[in-house]
Amino acid sequence: MNFLKYYQGLIAMSKRWPAVVTVLGLVVAAGVIIAVATMTRVGTAPQNKTAGSADKRWQAVAPGRVEPRSGQIKVATAVIGLVDKVLVKANDPVFAGEPLIRLADDELSARLAAAEAQVAMRKRARDDKAATGAAKDRRIARDAAADAEQAVYEARSAVDRAAAKWRATGKPDAGLTAARSALARAQDRLAKQQDDLRRNEANGPLPTALEGQLSVARAEYTIARTALDKMTIRAPIDGTVLQINVRAGELAAPASLQPLLLLADLSVLRVRAELDERDLGSIKVGQAVSVRAAAFPGREFEGSVSSIAPLVEPGRLDARGIREQTDVDVVEVMVELAQPGPLAVGMKADVYFHPDKSSTDKR
C-alpha cells in the first residue's frame, strides 16, 4: 500500500516538472537581459561624452572634393576631323599653345597652298603699277602687316617643332625657350604693324582695282590658314594632362559628349565643399579649416575659406549618414589649401571649420 502511494507521488511530480523548468528558464533569461542592458549603459556613457567634447572643436563639418583652382578644362575640337596623332599622354605637363592633338589636314593644306599662290600672283600684278603719296604709304603698311602675320605663322611652326623635339627627348630644351620668345616678339610686331595699318587706312585714298584684288586674295589666305590651324588642338593654359579620351584613327567632333582631353593647372589645389545651409551663419570668408581625406588617415591639411556661394541648392556630393541626397540643401564653399601635399584631383575630403578663427589668427 505504501509502495503504491510512493509510485503515485512520483507520477504527479513528473507531470509538474516541465512547468518548473519553464519558469526557471524565464527567470534566468530575464536576469541576463537586465545585466546586458546595465553593462551597455555603463560602457557607452563615457564614449558619448568624449564624442560630444570632440565636436566642440569644430564650427561645422562639410563633405567636399579636391579640385584645381583652374577647374578641369574640357578640351574639344571646333571642327570635325579624323585624329591623326595624339601628341601627349596622361600626366604630361604642357604649356599654353602647345599642340595636343593633330587632325588629318591634307585637303586644307592644299587649299592653303593655292591661296598662297593666288596672293603672290595678285601682289606681282599690283606692284607693276607704282603708287605715290598716301597710296604708297598705305601699300607699305599693308605689306608690312601681311609680312608680320606670316612671321607669326612661321614662329608658331618653329615652336611646334621645338615642342615635338622636347616631348620626344624628355629633357629641357633651350631651343623651345628661344622659339617661344621669338613667337612672343613676332606677335608684338604684328600688333604694332596692324596699328600702323589702321592709321594709314583712315587717311589714304580709295584702293585701286589691283589693290582690292590683292586684299581679297590675302583675306582668302587668312581664311585658309585659320581653317588649317583649327586642325591642331592646342593647350589653352599651362597645366597637366589629366585624361585622354581619344586615339589616332577616331573621329573627333564638336558635338561629342566626352571631351578629347581633360587638362588642369595643378599648381594650386582647393576643395569644393557643400555646407549644410543650417551652418551658413557660422561660416565666413577667411575662416581657418582642416581638411581630412580617407586616403591619408591621421593627416590634416590646413586651409581657409576663400568664397561662399550666394545660392542654396540641393547637394550633389554623396550624402553622409542615412539622409538621401535630395534631403539636404547646401551652400557651396571654396577652400584654398595652404599645402595640398599628396591630395589628388577628384579625391573625397571632409572640411572641418575652426570656430571663429581665420587662417591669419591661427598662425
The CATH architecture assignment of the domain at 60-69 and 266-362 turns out to be Beta Barrel
Cα shape: elongated
Note the beta-strand portion: 15-25%
- The stretches of 5 or more residues where confidence is low (pLDDT under 50) are 1-7, 32-54, 319-324
Major β-sheet profile: 6 strands, antiparallel, barrel
Query: Care to count the β-strands?
Result: 14
CATH T-level fold name of the domain at 60-69 and 266-362: Elongation Factor Tu (Ef-tu), domain 3
Termini separation: 102 Å
The CATH superfamily name of the domain at 60-69 and 266-362 is: Efflux pump adaptor protein, beta barrel domain
Mean pLDDT, all residues: 83
Q: Structural class, please?
A: alpha+beta
Q: What is the CATH level 1 assignment of the domain at 60-69 and 266-362?
A: Mainly Beta
Number of helices: 6
Helix content: 40-55%
Spatial arrangement of strands, main beta sheet: 1-10-13-12-11-14
What does this structure look like?
The chain is built from six helices and 14 strands. Helix 3 packs antiparallel against helix 4. Residues about 1-5, about 30-55 and about 320-325 have low confidence and may be disordered. Among the domains are: about 1-55; about 60-70 and about 265-360, Beta Barrel (Elongation Factor Tu (Ef-tu), domain 3), CATH 2.40.30.170. The protein is elongated. The chain is of the alpha+beta class. It is about 45% helix and about 25% strand. The strands form three sheets. A six-stranded antiparallel β-barrel has the order 1-10-13-12-11-14. Strands 2-9-7-4 form a four-stranded antiparallel β-sheet, with no helix packed on it. It has a four-stranded antiparallel β-sheet with strand order 6-5-3-8, with no helix packed on it.
